[in-house]
Write a structure and sequence with these properties.
Elements: H1 3-11, E1 17-18, H2 25-28, E2 42-45, H3 49-61, E3 66-69, E4 85-88, E5 95-98, E6 103-107, H4 112-120, E7 124-125, H5 136-142, H6 149-152, E8 159-165, E9 171-174, H7 180-186, E10 195-202, E11 204-205, E12 208-217, H8 221-231, E13 239-247, E14 262-270, H9 277-281, E15 292-299, H10 300-304, E16 316-324, H11 329-340, E17 348-353, E18 375-383, H12 389-403, H13 422-429, H14 433-443
Parallel strand pairs: 2-4, 3-4
Antiparallel strand pairs: 1-2, 5-6, 6-10, 7-11, 8-9, 8-10, 12-14, 12-15, 13-14, 13-17, 16-18, 17-18
Helix pairs in contact: 8-11, 11-12
Cofactor: FAD
Family: Belongs to the oxygen-dependent FAD-linked oxidoreductase family.
Organism: Streptomyces koelreuteriae
Amino acid sequence: MNSATLEDMRTSLRGPVIGPRDAEYDQARKIYNAMIDKRPAAIVRCADAADVMAAVAYVRDHGLELAVRGGGHSGPGLCLVDDGVTIDLSPMRGVRVDPSARTAQAGGGAQLGDLDHATHAFGLATPTGIISMTGVGGLTLGGGHGYLTRKYGLTADNLIAADVVLADGSYVTANADEHPDLFWALRGGGGNFGIATSLTYRLHPVDTVGVGVTVWPVDHIPEALAWYRAFLPQAPEDVYGFFNVFVVPPGPPFPEELHGRKVCGIVWCHTGDLDRLDETLSVVHEAGPPAFHFTTPMPYVALQSMFDELIPTGYQWYWRGDFFDHIPDAALDVHLKYGESNPTQLSLMHLYPVDGAAHRMGPDETAWSYRDAVWSGVFAGVDPDPVNADAIRQWCVDYQEELHPYSMGGSYVNFMGAGEGQERVRATYRDHYDRLARVKRTYDPDNLFHANQNIAPARA
């Protein structure tokens, strides 16, 4: 893209158009994962939906490659495209809460922290992820799960409307009554169908929650995970806990003697009676004496940002995922093997519960196709030093591949890594893939939006 083309784009947009020769270019192309080093020909920072419409039309009419950036949290870097145009929604971060209707409308560039901050002022929340820097758009379109999922469902289950710019540059609102086929696809089908410039959510009463952190030595993984797999699915939906394999970070709340040790543990969120928090979580001792157990009441908005400083923007990342409906005994030893061989301070494995309220949605009500999954697993190699990039990638790949035979076959689309292939995309959507391909044909027949875990348009 030459300078004349860049200037042409600048004249038609309110937001800045940043090219490779601009001083802010290198900063503008940085995303959460520093392992990604792509160089777009232009980064279009859209001020509003009109900018998005104009940018899409320009990209389409000039036959350019297109990527869409919301929060910039894409592990495989799908929010950037070499030599093409990244439509950057990050200026569009506003959130408007209607406390009477218990709804919130968030801009397409909003991050979870923006949404949580705005809703918490009214004692309300909607289920989202666990890192406040994550973009609400990408999280929602992929399905979205977190601390409130067992109680209130997926993020996508709580989406009640989305304003979307389509591949032809037009603007539509998708909800249960308008463009219902598109609305169905947006709730789990990823960024395949258009650019969501705003998203409206159903909110729930959530204010202060009970938080717990339980840790066992790494060699206790088989016993702790065997207890967890039996306890969590039958626990009340007010009780949420994700199982993790990690290295204890330096600093509170962990005692100094645990710093740097390889461990397993559970991070708890309890939305029930706070006076019963300690009693509710006392059951952790059934898995064996923990090396550390901590509970406290905490504002939900604080829990949502609890891990932000531990894994900030700019580290090396490689991740993969899988869905699981059970954890067989053979898998326990695999978790132990990779827990003991964890290559860096920040590399991890998490098993997030996706049962409870998420199971009460019908299997065909949204594009999310794993309503029978109990856990959404993620394997992530993480380190600040590029020297360790190969080591963390290999640990992640080996861990996921060795556990994959015990999985359900597909992955949460937002946990798919780079280069996993089209069969993995199909496995992620199962029987919904063909229906999604037909929706794709309706709204994006030329596959303009293909910088994603792509669903190709169905043939006419």
